[in-house]
Amino acid sequence: MECPCKPKLQAGAALEKENRQHQEQVGNPQTADSLPPVRAPNSYHRRLLPKDCIAFSSPEGRKLFTEAINSNSNYMQIYFPLAEQFITQSEPAYCGLSTLTMCLNALQIDPGRLWKGPWRWFSEELFDCCTSLNVAKERGISMTEFVCLANCNGVLTEAYRATNDFTLEQFRDIVKHSCATNSEIVVLNYSRMVLGQTGDGHFSPIGGYHAVRDMVLLLDVARFKYPPHWVKLSRVFEAMRYVVPAMNKPRGLVILREAPHLANATAEHTHSDNKENAAPIAPQPCCYSLSSVEAARRVADSPAKGA
Amino acid sequence: MECPCKPKLQAGAALEKENRQHQEQVGNPQTADSLPPVRAPNSYHRRLLPKDCIAFSSPEGRKLFTEAINSNSNYMQIYFPLAEQFITQSEPAYCGLSTLTMCLNALQIDPGRLWKGPWRWFSEELFDCCTSLNVAKERGISMTEFVCLANCNGVLTEAYRATNDFTLEQFRDIVKHSCATNSEIVVLNYSRMVLGQTGDGHFSPIGGYHAVRDMVLLLDVARFKYPPHWVKLSRVFEAMRYVVPAMNKPRGLVILREAPHLANATAEHTHSDNKENAAPIAPQPCCYSLSSVEAARRVADSPAKGA
Questions:
Q1: What DSSP state is assigned to residue B56?
Q2: A199 vs chain B: nearest CA distance in angstroms?
Q3: Is there a contact between A102 and A84 (Cβ–Cβ < 8 Å)?
Q4: A11 band by pLDDT with thresholds 50, 70 and 90
Q5: What is the pLDDT of residue B5?
Q6: Do the Cβ atoms of A112 and B39 come within 8 Å?
Q7: Nearest by Cα to A227 from A53, A62, A110
Q8: Taking CA atoms, what residue in B is nearest to A35?
Q9: Domain Peptidase C83: where (chains A, B) (predicted)?
Q10: Which helix (H) or strand (E) covers residue A146, if one does?
Q11: Is residue A220 among the annotated active site residues?
């Protein structure tokens, strides 16, 4: 099973690899001036982005953002709700859970159960179904588990594996459609290695599209490692297609939309973009039960904190 | 002592007051269509903003943002590093700690100690000095504690109380100066009540300034309650000046800047904006010691998670 965010190597080897990749990336002109030096060989304060990834706050990143915001093509609509809910993953292996948290809050989904005090709000620790939080903390979640969790928490999903018959043009159309809305988010499941980044399997939502440069804005939740960045659509397409030896299928993408009802909320397109070929996956029985909502509301009678 | 984020009433009365204020705000045209209805009388999924606060993602909010980004006055520079690190406060009373976390990461301060795995990164739980986390979770932190924590963690601070001799013009100049930089952040400590919002004492960083409309963008970390919003500079000025009966001084603002050295990092201007009147406050002995940094780095030898 694919396990995004999971370290593929033991700590020593992983750190050695991180250091080697880091040395190769030090010359990156977008970020070299603005990041402090690494202060110890065995811990890290962020990473330098590879050359092809343009940091959101760099001069070129700001230029791309301003051009995209001002474009008549209107592919920065989804930026606003996502920017409102941008978060840092609360555990190093939580990229999938944190990306989903961010998207559910951006889509204004009411979790129907308490977070803290009297507030109903999505946070990673609320995802107590499809897989256990302890397992997710250890090895991350797969794209299939991501879809299960999304369905269980009130959104429709449409999942695509980046197989050979899934084309760059189809991918671009999906990105354009999503980015021009306020209510549909594309989450990529991809290999960082293909982008020249350290680590491997990862999830990121697409926060906007620059049509003239054919680049997407990745709102990467591993903010302790990399800032949000612009990257060529064709590069992330290749990063979705990459199949690691331990997997027998490529990664892909999941489209999230608000769902009025939970039943039959999923379609996974593994060999075609033809929606008629969809194979619905039923929500897990562990998820989102009315009784858990009611129980959470009873807890709301306990003293509340302000904000 | 002033205690931002602290609930002023017991749970039942607080909830009743929240409901009353909520009913008064339901007519807000910026957000009424986009927020789901409250699903239980004793718990909440967000709040409607009062009329004078314009939600970032609303049509008018997007218009203000685009105008400000395109303005030659350049007062949206600080938006980029802050947007990269926008967070939700992890506890209902953590508005001060979470705002500081966001600002330290936006200023690219290296905490010099581990967060999780091999990563050095600011998160609320790292603020283990100036006040205890248990106390902060119960009653929030004061502006004085905010300044102490900022100094202990490597930034210079300049604090202003909004006394009668602190003028709107001085405030506007401070905001303009900060918003035109990438390296200086203004954090407001203010009363939500004056803005027509539920709750009272609160901290928010200013994420940009619209000169023509004379409005600031508040990147409010209580995102489970209110989205980021634009509000008139004169309104937040009044919200800083408001003195609650239990306090004998107004709230105010803190300017944060990266500090090369920690000693004598603070100046609090309680009666004048004249910097020569500064009364330096020494960092607390509990904070940011080299030994704790070294200890944290030793922990980094333990197995690391990927991201």
A1: T
A2: 6
A3: no
A4: very low
A5: 60
A6: yes
A7: A53
A8: B108
A9: 39-261
A10: helix A143-152
A11: yes
